[in-house]
Write a structure and sequence with these properties.
heterodimer, A: mainly alpha, about 80% helix, B: mainly alpha, Rna Polymerase Sigma Factor, Chain: A, 7 helices, globular
């Protein structure tokens, strides 16, 4: 087949494609919209469950340990960081999902590259390295101290407790970093792909 | 008076061929094509209220369809860069289900072996879009469009030769 026949060959496709009726298209659109809304509601719901669960835990522990000031401070900081982290993650997720496809290919690629670069390589992109260990330490301390039924200072003096805390902290840290790194790696691969496409689109060489 | 959804569905019914064709060049598998068809529809519906120039509906549909398809490829890691010819080009493996004639199958197979950007350029060329329209959809200059089309055609020609020799 010669290249000048290409357009003629391509024209034949018109009669072969399986067109859908307006009703079928309407059904497909309704089903897709419903699925997308359900996914959104699931994530929001999960976020609410985590937030409410944490707040209930913090209130209960605060009521049971009113005299333990250090424990109260630990839990307050934990609550604050978790709520801020959840809001930040929801905001990032929403920004990533809000994909504007109605742009030219070049503009769309630029927009996605800018967004992903800011998220993965920007000023605060490495803040998780500090936030995760702090959050992990506070969570482990909060749970461990609570179930030891002793004041915070007493628990910290106990050698066995310290070993338990270190082990829990290490495992928690490993799992958290493993998960975050996996997500980052996937998104970095996406960014690389988009950069490569952008290069292909803009470079004539 | 026609509601926004009715107006959208009417446009979609008339222009759905674009969605099918974009799907066809990016996805070999029927399930992927059906999933992507729904995703493009949804993205078109989302951006429809903001569509200002109703005279360039075709360009808008092409742009959303191409961007959504590339995004889906990215998500599912089906990326295959093919600037050079592969050692062996797969035969009509996953397009058997479609009842196209031999020439069309060969053309489609040759398009599959182009990279993602050249696929979209070739599609717009095959659809006989003007350089202005292609430049608008892809966001590149008109002069750039000409160069890109020639290069993509050259690659397509090589792919076709390779396929013909294999027969």
């Amino acid at each position: 087949m010669e290249t000048n026949d290409l357009q003629n060959t391509w024209k034949n496709i018109g009669i072969e494609l399986n067109s859908k009726t307006t009703d079928e298209l309407n059904q497909l659109l309704t089903s897709k919209t419903r699925k997308t809304i359900n996914k959104f509601l699931f994530i929001i719901g999960l976020d609410i469950v985590v937030c409410v669960g944490l707040i209930i835990f913090l209130i209960l522990t605060a009521l049971n340990r009113q005299s333990d000031l250090i424990y109260q401070v630990n839990n307050s900081i934990l609550g604050l960081i978790t709520v801020i982290s959840l809001i930040a993650s929801l905001y990032s997720w929403n920004k990533l999902q809000n994909n504007r496809y109605n742009l030219s290919l070049k503009d769309w690629l630029e927009q996605r590259i800018k967004l992903l670069s800011k998220w993965l390589l920007g000023k605060y992109s490495k803040s998780y390295i500090v936030v995760i260990p702090i959050l992990m330490a506070l969570i482990i301390l909060s749970i461990h101290v609570y179930y030891e039924y002793k004041p915070f200072v007493e628990v910290m003096k106990n050698e066995e407790s310290i070993y338990g805390l270190i082990a829990g902290f290490t495992i928690g840290l490993f799992v958290s970093f493993f998960t975050v790194n996996k997500i980052r790696k996937y998104q970095l691969k996406n960014l690389e792909f988009l950069n490569e496409l952008y290069g292909r689109l803009c470079n004539l060489g | 008076m026609q509601s926004l959804k009715e107006e959208f569905l009417e446009i979609l019914t008339n222009y759905q061929g674009i969605l099918h064709k974009v799907n066809l060049i990016y996805f070999r598998n029927k399930t992927d094509r059906e999933d992507n068809f729904q995703e493009i529809m949804y993205q078109l519906w989302k951006s429809f209220p903001g569509l200002q120039n109703r005279n360039s509906i075709g360009s808008w549909i092409y742009a959303v369809s191409i961007n959504t398809s590339i995004s889906r490829l990215k998500k599912e890691s089906r990326i295959e860069y093919r600037e050079k010819l592969p050692e062996s080009i797969d035969k009509f493996d996953l397009i058997e289900e479609l009842s196209f004639n031999e020439n069309f199958r060969m053309l489609l197979q040759a398009i599959y072996n182009l990279n993602e950007i050249d696929k979209s350029i070739m599609l717009l060329y095959l659809e006989e879009k003007s350089y202005d329209e292609i430049a608008e959809i892809l966001g590149i200059s008109k002069s750039n469009v000409g160069v890109r089309i020639n290069r993509a055609k050259e690659l397509l020609k090589q792919n076709l030769k390779h396929l013909n020799n294999g027969n």
